[in-house]
Amino acid sequence: MSTILVTGGTGTLGRRVTDRLQAAGHEVRVLSRRSEQYPVDLRDGRGLDAAMAGAQVVVHCASSPRGGDDKAAGHLIAAARRAGTVTNLVYISIVGVDVVPLGYYRVKHRVERMLLESGLGVTILRTTQFHDLVAAVARALARVPGPVPVPRGVRVQPIAVEEVAGRLAELAVPVPAAGGRVPDMGGPEVRTLADWVRAYLAAGGGRRRRVVEVPLAGRAYRGFLRGGNLAPDRAVGTVRFADFLAEGGGRA
User: Fold this and answer.
1) Is the pLDDT confidence value at 1 over 60?
2) Are 122 and 180 in contact (CB under 8 A)?
3) Do the beta carbons of residue 199 and residue 241 sit within 8 Å?
4) What residue segments make up the domains of the chain, in order of their start?
5) Spatial separation of the C-alpha atoms in residues 93 and 229, rounded to whole Å
6) In whole angstroms, what is the distance from residue 97 CA to residue 103 CA?
7) How many CB atoms lie within 10 A of CB 46?
8) Is the pLDDT of residue 207 over 60?
9) Molecular function terms in GO for this entry (predicted)?
10) Which of 4, 36, 169, 193 has the most C-beta neighbours closer than 10 Å?
11) What is the pTM for the complete model shown?
């Protein structure tokens, strides 16, 4: 069995990856700012060498839409080089980071390039948006009084975080993927964000709220309109958004 370091191991995705790896018998080191085992802030990298020492595989789940992912990746790459034992660094990315010019996506794409150019063995998995994120967006939009405004024409293909965690656990092996990337993962259904918001409202008893699609502007919006965030030919997820809602997912 391998010694595996999971960054962001206390987060929504990371803790599920950790559970699967531990169940498979691996020694798992949980790294995050809130970790009791390895409390490390990747933005400054202090304590990272101790966490990395002797690890064969790193599963990099830590991420922040507020920025700094590229700086964190730089610290992670440097520590993996110093350790000299890491043979596979597995990274979770997002479908469309190379075609949708959203700030967060651009940084994720920059991290991909940093990893591929690092000289380390890497495995990059891109997925569509998690059910949890779609529910969080719907919840935020529903806080607006009156009709619920939703970007017009934007389609989303949500996937269950549990399925992504399972795939990452499969990829957390000492041998990296050939070429550094594996096929994308997409959820089972592509529908407009307006449809997903209506489903969220209905599940919460908000059937009487009217959803209004509003056109936006900008290159990122046009990227979403073109479907850059979708992977319809890789609809490998099986858990539907309706299943997620039926189990109480996304409730505040």
Assistant:
1) yes
2) yes
3) yes
4) 3-246
5) 12
6) 9
7) 12
8) no
9) protein-containing complex binding
10) 4
11) 0.95
Give the whole-angstrom CA distance, residue 173 versus residue 181: 14
Q: How far is CA 220 from CA 57, 61, 101, 105, 207, in A?
A: 34, 24, 5, 10, 30
Sign of the CA dihedral running 124, 130, 134, 136: negative
Over the chain, what HEC string results? CCEEEEECCCCCCHHHHHHHHHHCCCEEEEEECCCCCEECCCCCCCCHHHHHCCCCEEEECCCCCCCCHHHHHHHHHHHHHHHCCCCEEEEEEECCCCCCCCHHHHHHHHHHHHHHCCCCCEEEEEECCEHHHHHHHHHHHHCCCCCEEEECCCEECCECHHHHHHHHHHHCCCCCCHHHECCCECCCCCEEHHHHHHHHHHHCCCCCCCEEEECCCCHHHHHHHCCCCCCHHHCCCCCCHHHHHHCCCCCC
Least confident of 23-32, 43-52, 197-206, 212-221: 197-206
- The answer on pLDDT for 117 being more than 70 is yes
Instruction: Specify the pLDDT at position 222.
Output: 97
d(CA 247, CA 187): 17
Lowest mean pLDDT among 62-71, 86-95, 102-111, 155-164: 62-71
pLDDT confidence of residue 205: 61
Which positions ≥6 away from 13 have C-beta within 8 Å? 61, 92, 130, 161, 164, 165, 168
Tokens of 224: 């979403």
Interatomic CA distance for residues 134 and 239, integer angstroms: 14
CATH of domain 3-246: 3.40.50.720
